[in-house]
Amino acid sequence: MGKREFSSFIASAVERELRGMLLDEYIADHERRIGPLPEAERRRARELFDDALGESGQWHTAS
Question: What is the predicted pLDDT for the residue at 35?
Answer without folding.
Answer: 96
